[in-house]
Amino acid sequence: MKYDMLLLRLGELTLKGKNRGRFERTVLAHVKSVIRPFPAATIQKEYGRLYIVLNGEDPNAIIKVLKKVFGLYSVSPVAVCPSELDAIIETSRAFIKQMDLKDETTFKVTARRVWKAFPHPSQEMNHLVGSPLLSEFGQLKVSMRNPELELRIEIRESGTYIYCEVIPGAGGFPRGSNGKAMLLLSGGIDSPVAGYSAMRRGLEVECVHFYSYPFTSRKAKEKVMELAKVLSGYAGKIKIHLVPFTEIQTSFTQVGQDNLIITLMRRSMLRIATMLAEREGALAIVTGDSLGQVASQTLPSMNVIGRATELPLLRPLVMMDKNEIVEIAQEIGTYELSILPYEDCCTLFVPKSPTTNPNLHVVERVEASLENLPGMLEEAVQRTETVILTPSSVIAADREEAIEEDWF
Ligand code: ATP
Ligand code: MG
Questions:
Q1: What is the pLDDT of residue 145?
Q2: Which segments in the chain show pLDDT lower than 70?
Q3: CA–centroid distance, residue 282 to ligand 2 (Å)
Q4: Hey, what CATH class is 5-168 in?
Q5: Which residue's C-alpha comes closest to atom 17 of ligand 1?
């Protein structure tokens, strides 16, 4: 089948008025940037929809890149023919023929006469197109209620659109349409999935990663950079802040309360992320916490750890099972990277029995006893290195304009 266009459906049903306008403009800009490698293709905009006119470009290759555009709900490859009865019947025939149906398939035609001057009303068109198809293709069996195959025909003045496939898109809210958040990105399975979920809700995400040279290797840091690159595929580019954490972490090992080390580390991570959020204009912190998964993710632990920041803590995975998280990680292409064996700074000093029920007063007392802790946090922020990643490159933060043109 030769397809002429792709029909793109935008937005959640509940979107109205001004919000819908903003939503649609943001998706349009994103779609434009991802189809740049297909120069012949052009875009037309309509309420709730976009059309990509293929002009000979490969529909499957374009659908592949569209799968990473949030705010896009589904895509249908469309054949276009003149708005004349014979042409519509002939194109519909060709459409069904190329599907090469083997088994009995329930079927209906849904015609919509958008152009009122077309001589046959919608109901009549259903019969005029449906009858010859039913007599030619023995596998087709009419079902009005819940057909496996619905051939849709939209009759417009400029031409008639014929399609039946509805391919699910990435869904969610468009890129960056709900503000900015800092993502605590480790090398594990969970936090990249949390980042994806946040981006899917329209958050612009900046990554924050804590590393502990020489206890963690360069490989561990590279692995995190690769994970962030995968995430950048959903936004075009992503910023990552690499925070030196060795000194802070080491100071906690000297307190003599080993069961609190993870709690103390997590609180310091949140404090640093909060400082970076202020600097970057982000309004929330996203983590990969999932309730009950490990000692630091029990409800009492989350409670004591969460108090280290006043920013909203978003935990997209909090109620999910591990296997559900792994499934998403596999789908979005982070799983294989995440299971590479390089150590994370948190696994290094993990005590034999980290507390599942830390006491806030004790934790605060320990922190107060470390006089130079605030200074160390400040210094870590100052020594933080920031780079911008795209799916295929690393760019110093002060050279952002170098990629601007490619993506936005
Ligand atoms: P993940 O798979 O995301 O590492 P996890 O189940 O291993 O999660 P933890 O190691 O307890 O859980 O970490 C909980 C959360 O704390 C992570 O999801 C991440 O958001 C954050 N975090 C942990 N270590 C780091 C790090 N080195 N840098 C940045 N964030 C981190
Ligand atoms: Mg981890």
A1: 92
A2: 12-14, 344-350, 401-408
A3: 23
A4: alpha beta
A5: 288
Residues of the chain with CATH 3.40.50.620: 180-407
Asked whether the whole model's pTM tops 0.85, one would answer: yes
pLDDT (0 to 100) of residue 345: 63
Please tell me the predicted confidence (pLDDT) of residue 405. 46
pLDDT attached to residue 406: 47
Nearest atom within ligand 1 for CA of residue 286: 20
- Gap between the Cα atoms of 148 and 131, Å rounded: 17
What lines the ligand 1 site, CB under 6 Å? 184-186, 188-191, 208-210, 269, 287-289, 293-294, 296, 344-346
Ligand nearest to the CA of 207: 1
pLDDT at position 268, please?
98
Query: Where do you find CATH 3.30.2130.30 in the chain?
Result: 5-168
Q: Identify the CATH class of 180-407.
A: alpha beta
Atom of ligand 1 nearest to the CA of 189: 2
Which positions make up the binding site for ATP? 184-185, 209-210, 266, 288, 297
Bridge partners of residue 167, in order along the sequence: 75
Q: What size, in residues, is the chain?
A: 408
d(CA 183, CA 241): 10
Q: In what order do the strands lie in the sheet with 285-286?
A: 313-314, 285-286, 180-184, 204-211, 238-244, 385-390, 393-396
Distance (angstroms) between ligand 2 centre and the Cα of 238 equals: 21
